[in-house]
Amino acid sequence: MAELGRMLILLGAVLITTGLVILGIQKLPFSGKLPGDILIKKEHFTFYFPLATGIIISILISLILYLIGKFR
Predict the structure, then answer these.
(1) Closest listed residue to residue 37, CA positions, set 28, 22, 48
(2) CA-CA distance, 61 to 27, in Å (whole number)?
(3) In terms of domains, do 37 and 24 share one?
(4) Alpha-helix runs per DSSP H in 1-72
(5) Domain containing 47: what range?
(6) Smallest Cα–Cα separation from 53: which of 29, 26, 27, 33?
(7) Separation of alpha carbons 36 and 59, rounded Å
(8) Beta-carbon neighbour count of residue 58 at 10 Å?
(9) Rounded CA gap, 60 and 52, in Å?
(10) Model's pTM, two decimal places?
(11) How far apart are alpha carbons 62 and 58 in whole angstroms?
(12) Same domain, residue pair 46 and 17
């Protein structure tokens, strides 16, 4: 049961950190304005897909997790 408790605490910490990052990323000046981000505006329709931003975030998260695993 102690292992399950630790896992739930870790999961909660990851969720809180992810939420804070999502809230904070809106304040970054380049967020959503990179050359690879797709934005289509029509009369009554707006489609936004942050492709380049998503790739950069994915690379950063992968690097962080790699470093955590390497030094663990």
Answers:
(1) 48
(2) 19
(3) no
(4) 2-25, 51-70
(5) 32-72
(6) 33
(7) 15
(8) 10
(9) 12
(10) 0.57
(11) 6
(12) no
Contact between residue 55 and residue 36 where contact means Cβ atoms under 8 Å apart: yes
Instruction: Report how many domains make up the chain.
Output: 2
Write the pLDDT tens digit of every residue in 24-72.
877 777 666 788 889 899 999 999 888 988 898 899 889 988 998 887 7
Residue 39 has which token pair? 């934005």
DSSP state of 26: T
CB-CB contact of 49 with 36 (8 Å): no
Q: Which two tokens stand for residue 41?
A: 């505006």
What six digits make up the tokens of 20?
A: 């804070």
